[in-house]
Write a structure and sequence with these properties.
Helix content is 32%, strand content 21%. By secondary structure, the protein is an alpha/beta fold. The chain has two domains: 71 residues, no CATH class; 257 residues, 3-Layer(aba) Sandwich (Rossmann fold). The strands form three sheets. A seven-stranded mixed β-sheet has the order 9-8-7-10-11-14-13, with helices on both faces. A four-stranded antiparallel β-sheet has the order 3-4-5-12, with no helix packed on it.
């Protein structure tokens, strides 16, 4: 049985945890999976929330409350998982078509996000989007005066960003392969990414070193508090690419341990997952109404449906109390991360743009 623990140096405490994990989990761990201790606090006390698939579970730490998949799939298994949704999958092809077709609408969303970031940033400097997709967010950032940089592991996305959007500082590589100097960036953003990382703590420590003092880390991720009503049927547990499930409290804790203080925290769109589980479908090819009359009829039906739906009136209260589906956090770097020999061991923290929640 393979036991993988957070990289915190060799300690007797970790040996004890390893032995406990072995004896408390007598069933053999599936091939390509590793039984792990809590990434947030090192605890080995968990309660099972739901099945992740036939091979693993979604568990909750009994000490800090962090939710994650355990046993954790190793990188070989994750690579196989992502290859099933390769660039030829309609999701990836239609992502570029949909974002291009509705670029004006998405641009408004990106401007709102950037305006919020600029409220906390010390001027407009170098911005890195990790898992940048086709670069649509970065293009809006460039238009607002930022120096955009982006990475993604999907070659077609980087080709589009470079050739169609003229974003030259975009690269098809993972974070550990970056060659930027320490303290190079002013802002780093993770849109729907941190939930896909098998070692988020190590990943955040690498980001810490890339950010200048007082630099900002921006995270957008599904909110585990949104599962309060649906429990194991919550929409956020369904995609197999999701490995961690953060609440405002647990995300704040892991950010603090990585040298960040939370300066902004918000949740929204509670109606997306609190009472109902929407169908997780890949992008469809964009379709526009054929005429102005069709647009009016479509808009009227939508407005009427929203008017009679009581969830639309409850949703703002749920958002305000921290139960919205999306968790939006901005952390400011307040301390340098220190690791053994000054290096983070983040070999398993691969950047992925999975087939369930591209938002770029």
């Amino acid at each position: 049985m393979a036991i993988t623990l957070p990289a915190r140096g060799f300690k007797w405490r970790e040996i004890i945890i390893s032995m406990r994990l072995i004896f408390q989990n007598p069933c053999p761990v599936p091939k390509q999976f590793d039984l792990i201790a809590c990434e947030g606090c090192g605890s080995n006390r968990f309660s099972t929330l739901t099945d992740w698939n036939d091979l693993s579970k979604v568990v909750q730490c009994g000490q800090c409350g962090l939710q994650f998949v355990n046993p954790m799939p190793n990188q070989e298994y994750l690579d196989q998982l992502y290859q099933q949704d390769g660039e030829e999958h309609p999701y990836y092809r239609n992502y570029l078509l949909e974002r291009t077709d509705r670029r004006s609408s998405y641009s408004k969303q990106y401007h709102r996000r950037l305006k919020l970031i600029e409220n906390y940033a010390k001027g407009k400097g170098k911005l890195l989007d990790i898992g940048c997709g086709g670069g649509f967010f970065l293009k809006t950032a460039e238009e607002r005066g930022w120096e955009p940089h982006g990475i993604d592991i999907v070659p077609g996305f980087i080709q589009f960003a470079r050739n169609e959007l003229q974003l030259k500082n975009t690269h098809c590589r993972s974070l550990e392969d970056l060659e930027y100097d320490k303290h190079f960036f002013d802002v780093i953003v993770l849109w729907d990414l941190i939930e896909h990382l098998p070692r988020p703590a190590n990943f955040l420590e690498t980001i810490n070193r890339l950010l200048r003092p007082d630099g900002l880390l921006v995270i957008w991720t599904p909110n585990a508090n949104n599962a309060a009503w649906l429990k194991e049927n919550w929409f956020g547990y369904k995609p197999l690419q999701h490995l961690y499930f953060f609440s405002p409290r647990t995300l704040s804790q892991i950010l603090q341990s990585a040298g960040f203080s939370v300066v902004y925290k918000n949740t929204n769109r509670a109606k997306k997952g609190f009472f109902t589980a929407p169908e997780n479908r890949p992008y469809k090819k964009p379709e526009r109404p054929l005429s102005k009359v069709d647009k009016i009829i479509s808009g009227t039906k939508r407005d009427l449906k929203n008017f009679i739906n009581p969830v639309n009136y409850i949703s703002p209260l749920l958002d305000w109390t921290g139960y919205g589906f999306n968790l939006y956090v901005i952390g400011k770097k307040t301390a340098e991360c220190t690791k053994e020999n000054g290096e983070a061991k983040n070999a398993s923290a691969k950047i992925s743009t999975p087939s369930s929640d591209l938002t770029k």
